[in-house]
């Protein structure tokens, strides 16, 4: 049967120099694009500290208008504003500019995140919404071009969205997206981020909604599968992501981020031009300026002042030091970026090839430095704030490497210097456990620098100039519901040695040139914008076809026999959630349940305006037809079962799938979800749909099931 539309999208969280407007040449920090609160890399103004800006006039909603079939007003949903730090912010800004100028869409920006919930509803210019943001959000630079965008305040809070904002303030919710579509006349949304950046408090999106996704696992399953279905169309950031998504839904396309090598090289040259004028740099090569170890690694005095990570020969030619750049974010305890493997592999490379002159340049920074940027005033993070990620200096020191062959650079740098490191390195070492896109990997190759990556997902897709090393094994992440890989230390070390020996050969130089041309063509902004122009049209067609099958549009519940809303299980340890139904119903084998009645009650309640159900219990009758007490008596409490197990339980599939990873026993799952839900959204269905059976009935009912 034709379903009402399956639907889904990342986070390329590299230490990336994302292509900004060429005129914006100001300090750039390289950190996680998923975080929505970072200061703008382009903000030249002094932040105002505490002023919230002038109060906005009350917003008058537009008159009710039937926009069915229209595709004129497009909104981009992202963490942060365009002028704040982040690859995602810059991707969205430039994509919307291109869609506005070349395809004549009216383009809007709807920010998600804790800092925007108090902005009044309304349609604003960049300057207006900048003045309304809290003090910790950087203001729009005076020379920033936001003429192609209008900015949306979130719709007024409802009973549902108020609770969601408390539970998950960094996410937007489906109801907020739907309310915004009606309030502002938005015809379609593009959501960039992980699949779970939109909280699912509704069945359907009211307008075409596209998920632009960087998926991190080998299969789409569990909560990811359940959440992915809701989107009208899915767009994968890499071919492998697109292929994995295609296994669970057909409405999917591949559109990558755009990469602009000209902007990278221009930023690097602009930064170097200023640095060359400094007194201490008069007789230094560009490589010596970029990789000045004593300047950028001041943790302890271990080298003479004359030490240099790179060397310049008498005739001024580039030195023979093989400069290995390991650059990226460091905010995950699971070490997704593979720092441990990268450092171990370099140590192994040094051990097996002592004849090659080499230097490891580790560039990242702690999450506490990110918080300094988040502060909005440049203040340091409080001392009680513990850093996340891994101890980079500790990892390097544990390898007992000679102090003259490594540098640990944990400073925030102008984007020009970050770009210059990629331009002047000999190889970019990036053996991540997984990448949804891998901005770092592509930016290095775009300026001619080879890479060493892990042969998995986007890294395998996008490694043209370099070596993608087969992983050593799988690594399962129970809490996240998927697998990624463990990079191979020996394989990475071998790849470093191969590039170290062959990087100057004609064959390798041709490979480098071919990769530069491939990136220029494959990842152009024009190509990305054209792709979205096509996908928006396909999404509108899909949405129109799906309308008759949307649960939120049905005035009456569909028949359970023909279109079940919930999956049924009688197993207290249910199988991994892989079903398509929106809900899961558990009941004991000795309890008879009227599924049609439950479906009607569930549909009526969950499609009611302004209502949400996070968990529901169906009050069960005993064999005599008397309703059973909900909670167990204190004397009967066994430490696990706080409510009588005779009562059937209804759980949203996506929530159950998330909880199931850590709470596989159904009553643990239900209790955990109950404890994490707002009590007003835990529902009790009245008696009548469930009853405990006598032994004779059990055999008959079992045969029926």
Structural class by SSE content: alpha/beta
Q: Give the helix tally.
A: 22
Which strand order do you get reading across the main beta sheet?
3-4-2-1-6-8-9-10
Terminal residue distance: 23 Å
Brief summary:
The protein has 705 residues and is an alpha/beta fold. The chain has 22 helices and 25 strands.
Secondary structure layout:
Blueprint: E1 73-79, H1 87-103, E2 106-112, E3 123-124, H2 126-132, E4 150-152, H3 159-167, E5 172-173, H4 174-184, E6 188-192, E7 198-199, E8 209-213, H5 222-228, E9 233-236, H6 239-246, E10 252-254, H7 261-276, H8 286-290, H9 293-296, E11 322-327, H10 339-352, E12 358-363, H11 367-374, H12 392-398, E13 406-409, H13 415-424, E14 427-430, H14 439-446, E15 451-454, H15 458-462, E16 466-469, E17 473-477, E18 482-486, H16 489-502, H17 506-522, H18 525-546, E19 566-569, E20 583-586, E21 591-593, H19 595-606, E22 615-618, E23 649-652, H20 653-660, H21 666-675, E24 682-685, E25 690-692, H22 695-704
Parallel strand pairs: 1-2, 1-6, 2-4, 5-7, 6-8, 8-9, 9-10, 11-12, 11-14, 12-13, 14-15, 15-16, 19-20, 22-24
Antiparallel strand pairs: 3-4, 17-18, 20-23, 21-25, 22-23
Helix pairs in contact: 1-18, 5-20, 7-13, 10-16, 20-21
Would you give an account of this structure?
It contains 22 helices and 25 strands. Helix 20 (653-660) packs across helix 21 (666-675). The longest helix has 22 residues, at 525-546. The protein is globular, with a radius of gyration of 28 Å.
């Amino acid at each position: 049967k034709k379903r009402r539309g399956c639907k889904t999208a990342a986070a390329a969280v590299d230490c990336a120099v994302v292509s900004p407007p060429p005129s914006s040449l100001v300090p750039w920090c390289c950190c996680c694009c998923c975080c929505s609160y970072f200061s703008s890399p382009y903000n030249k103004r002094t932040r105002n500290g505490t002023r919230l800006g002038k109060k906005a006039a009350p917003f008058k909603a537009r008159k009710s208008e039937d926009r069915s079939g229209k595709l004129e007003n497009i909104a981009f949903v992202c963490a942060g504003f365009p002028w704040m730090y982040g690859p995602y912010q810059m991707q969205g800004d430039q994509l919307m500019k291109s869609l506005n100028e070349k395809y004549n869409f009216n383009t809007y920006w709807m920010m998600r995140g804790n800092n925007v919930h108090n902005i009044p509803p309304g349609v604003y210019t960049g300057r207006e919404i900048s003045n309304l943001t809290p003090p910790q959000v950087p203001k729009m630079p005076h020379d920033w071009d936001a003429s192609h965008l209008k900015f949306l305040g979130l719709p007024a809070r409802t009973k549902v969205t108020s609770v969601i904002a408390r539970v998950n303030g960094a996410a937007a919710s489906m109801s907020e997206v739907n309310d915004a579509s009606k309030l502002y006349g938005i015809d379609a949304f593009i959501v960039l981020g992980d699949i779970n950046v939109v909280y699912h408090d509704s069945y359907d999106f009211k307008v075409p909604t596209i998920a632009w996704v960087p998926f991190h696992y080998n299969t789409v399953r569990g909560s990811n599968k359940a959440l992915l279905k809701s989107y009208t169309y899915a767009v994968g950031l890499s071919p492998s992501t697109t292929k994995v998504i295609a296994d669970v839904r057909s409405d999917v396309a591949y559109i990558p981020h755009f990469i602009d090598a000209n902007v990278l090289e221009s930023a690097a040259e602009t930064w170097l031009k200023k640095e060359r004028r400094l007194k201490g740099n008069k007789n230094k090569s560009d490589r010596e300026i970029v990789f000045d170890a004593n300047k950028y690694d001041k943790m302890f005095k271990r080298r003479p002042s004359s030490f240099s990570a790179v060397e310049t020969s008498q005739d001024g030619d580039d030195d023979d030091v093989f400069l290995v750049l390991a650059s990226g974010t460091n905010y995950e305890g699971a070490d997704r970026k593979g720092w441990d493997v990268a450092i171990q592999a370099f140590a192994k490379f040094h051990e097996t090839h002592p004849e090659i002159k080499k230097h490891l340049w580790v560039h990242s920074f702690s999450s506490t430095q990110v918080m300094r940027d988040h502060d909005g005033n440049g203040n340091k993070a409080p001392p009680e704030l513990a850093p996340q990620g891994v101890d980079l200096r500790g990892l390097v020191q544990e390898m007992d490497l000679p102090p003259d062959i490594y540098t640990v650079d944990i400073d925030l740098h102008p984007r020009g210097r970050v770009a210059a490191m990629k331009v002047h390195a000999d190889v970019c070492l990036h053996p991540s456990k997984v990448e949804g896109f891998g901005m770092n990997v592509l930016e290095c190759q775009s300026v001619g620098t080879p890479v060493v990556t892990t042969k998995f997902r986007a890294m395998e897709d996008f490694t043209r100039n370099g070596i993608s090393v087969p992983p050593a094994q799988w690594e399962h992440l129970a809490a996240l519901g998927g697998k990624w890989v463990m990079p191979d230390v020996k394989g990475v070390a071998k790849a470093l040695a191969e590039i170290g020996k062959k990087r100057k050969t004609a064959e390798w130089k041709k490979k480098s040139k071919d990769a530069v041309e491939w990136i220029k063509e494959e990842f152009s902004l024009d190509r990305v914008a054209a792709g979205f122009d096509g996908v928006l049209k396909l999404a509108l067609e899909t949405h129109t076809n799906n309308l008759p099958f949307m649960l939120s549009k049905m005035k009456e519940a569909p028949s359970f026999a023909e279109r079940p809303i919930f999956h049924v299980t009688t197993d207290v340890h249910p199988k991994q959630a892989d079903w398509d139904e929106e809900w899961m119903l558990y009941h004991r084998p000795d309890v008879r349940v009227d599924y049609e009645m439950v479906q009607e009650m569930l549909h009526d309640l969950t499609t009611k305006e302004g209502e949400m159900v996070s968990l529901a219990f169906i009050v069960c009758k005993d064999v005599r037809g008397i309703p059973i007490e909900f909670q167990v008596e204190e004397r009967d409490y066994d430490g696990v079962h706080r409510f009588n197990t005779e009562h059937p339980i209804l759980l949203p599939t996506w929530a159950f799938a998330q909880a199931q990873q850590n709470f596989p026993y159904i009553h643990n799952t239900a209790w955990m979800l109950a404890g994490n839900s707002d009590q007003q959204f835990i529902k009790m269905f009245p008696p009548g749909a469930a009853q405990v059976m006598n032994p004779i009935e059990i055999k008959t009912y079992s045969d029926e099931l």
